[in-house]
């Protein structure tokens, strides 16, 4: 089966998505997500200028060889742009392989290890009471796990607060909007938030929280310790993970489980954290960590050290990424949980998909391949719009981690 065509489709049904579509001489095509939030066009250029010319005429069945060709062959390894492009090719080829075999992707990986994929939703509010109410809405929808974020008094634009509907889209303007950050205010506030959520909703629901890379190691240690009574499923990105040694310090002080990895793009980014058992969940995504081909190696490494998978699943990852992730999750022996921020209706219409939500779990369905398609006619009606992620500054103007 030969690759006869490949093209990049950029569409903005409220937020930008980059999708690679690969066509073959047998009439079978596959798609893969290549979205890199706020830097979309860099991946488009990488694919169009450097990758697609190498794909034409290749054997579409040789997924591993295509991965190695694009990774080793570029000479310049790793990086979010390169790896998002490689991932898009990888997933599109797995999609094609599944369609050619008449099998859903999870069957190609080794079959289902469980009956459904446990997901967590995003509850947030401008205040503690609003966040508590939002958790109630997720419980009512059947969610068994919920991430909770709340506005913090005196902190303008605190991370992770939605705009009153189910979706949260931080990339909101052509130039980065500015938010404010105060670690002291946050550290005092976070335990009060979780105390209230547990008082109202009890301990039957799993709770998660994202610190979004904003703390120093000792601050993260303090946060983890102060949240212990509320038994979090995980505390995510407590400190930036370029400095992986930092997690040793956090670990020495708290038994709150730690999750890291949504910005990682290589197994090498994960290696130290996993081998030293400094984290409990690794959050790499299909799209940013080199597709199914590398993600299953990461899962294999993690399994050796009892680290479980908790794939990133924000709405800036397209339904094509979600579909692939759900097949992966259904198979992965060391699956933990999958993030599931709901896409808007406009996005769901653009990407018809087989996956469904039921009783707190997502199910990838049994359509061959990844079970997600793209409506190209509809895509043409949603042209690209320049949108970047916000930045964060301290009160004195110092740049901080958003
Ligand atoms: C999460 C994430 C996202 C990121 C977003 C950036 O845990 O879901 O932190 O919401 O902020 O993916 O593009
Ligand atoms: Mg996160």
What are the SSEs and their pairings?
Blueprint (H helix, E strand, L loop, with lengths): L2 E9 L5 E8 L4 E5 L6 H16 L7 H10 L7 H22 L3 H5 L7 E9 L2 H14 L3 E6 L27 E3 L2 H19 L4 E5 L6 H11 L6 E3 L9 H8 L4 E3 L6 H9 L5 E2 L8 H14 L3 E2 L9 H13 L6 E2 L5 H6 L5 E3 L2 E3 L12 H5 L10 E3 L5 E2 L2
Parallel strand pairs: 4-5, 4-12, 5-7, 6-15, 7-8, 8-9, 9-10, 10-11
Antiparallel strand pairs: 1-2, 2-3, 4-14, 13-14, 15-16
Helix pairs in contact: 1-3, 2-3, 5-6, 6-7, 7-8, 9-10
Helix content, binned percent: 25-40%
CATH topology-level fold name of the largest domain:
TIM Barrel
The H/E string reads EEEHHHHEHEEHEHEHEHEHEHEHEEHEE
* Rg over alpha carbons: 20 Å
Helix run count: 13
CATH architecture of the largest domain: Alpha-Beta Barrel
As for the number of domains, it is: 2
* CATH superfamily (homologous) name of the largest domain: Enolase-like C-terminal domain
Q: Taking all residues together, what is the mean pLDDT? A: 97
For this structure, what is the CATH class of the largest domain? Alpha Beta
Which geometry do the CA atoms define? globular
Structural class determined from secondary elements: alpha/beta
* First and last CA, distance: 45 Å
Q: What is the number of strand segments?
A: 16
Largest sheet, strands/sense/barrel: 10 strands, mixed
Fraction of residues in β-strands: 15-25%
Bound ligands, each once: D-gluconic acid, magnesium ion
């Amino acid at each position: 089966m030969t690759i006869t065509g490949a093209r990049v489709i950029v569409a903005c049904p409220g937020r930008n998505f980059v999708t690679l579509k690969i066509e073959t001489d047998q009439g079978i095509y596959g798609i893969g997500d290549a979205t890199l939030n706020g830097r979309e066009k860099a991946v488009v250029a990488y694919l169009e200028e450097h990758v697609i010319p190498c794909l034409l005429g290749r054997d579409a069945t040789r997924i591993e060889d295509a991965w190695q060709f694009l990774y080793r062959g570029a000479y310049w390894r790793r990086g979010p742009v390169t790896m998002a492009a490689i991932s898009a090719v990888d997933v599109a080829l797995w999609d094609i392989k599944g369609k050619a075999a008449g099998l859903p992707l999870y069957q190609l990986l080794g079959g289902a290890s469980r009956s459904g994929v446990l997901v967590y939703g995003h509850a947030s509010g401008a205040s503690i009471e609003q966040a508590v109410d939002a958790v109630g809405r997720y419980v009512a929808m059947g969610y068994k796990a919920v991430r909770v974020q709340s506005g913090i008094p005196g902190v303008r634009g605190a991370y992770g607060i939605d705009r009153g509907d189910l979706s949260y889209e931080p990339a909101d303007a052509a130039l980065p909007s500015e938010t404010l950050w105060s670690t002291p205010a946050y550290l005092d506030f976070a335990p009060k938030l979780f105390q209230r959520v547990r008082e109202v909703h009890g301990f039957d629901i799993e709770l998660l929280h994202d610190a979004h890379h904003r703390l120093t190691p000792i601050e993260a240690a303090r946060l983890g310790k102060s949240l212990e009574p509320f038994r979090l499923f995980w505390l995510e990105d407590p400190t930036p993970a370029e400095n992986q040694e930092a997690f040793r310090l956090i670990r020495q002080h708290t038994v709150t489980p730690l999750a890291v990895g949504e910005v990682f793009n290589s197994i090498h980014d994960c290696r130290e954290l996993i081998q030293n058992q400094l984290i409990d969940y690794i959050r790499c995504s299909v799209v940013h960590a080199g597709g199914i081909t590398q993600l299953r190696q990461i899962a294999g490494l993690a399994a050796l050290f009892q680290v479980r998978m908790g794939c990133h699943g924000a709405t800036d990852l397209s339904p094509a990424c979600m579909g692939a992730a759900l097949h992966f999750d259904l198979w992965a022996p060391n699956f933990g949980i999958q993030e599931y921020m709901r896409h808007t209706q406009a996005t769901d219409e653009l990407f018809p998909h087989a996956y469904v939500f039921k009783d707190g779990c997502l199910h990838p369905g049994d359509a061959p391949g990844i079970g997600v398609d793209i409506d190209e006619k509809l895509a043409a009606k949603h042209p690209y719009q320049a949108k970047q992620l916000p930045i964060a500054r301290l009160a004195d103007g110092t740049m901080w981690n958003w």
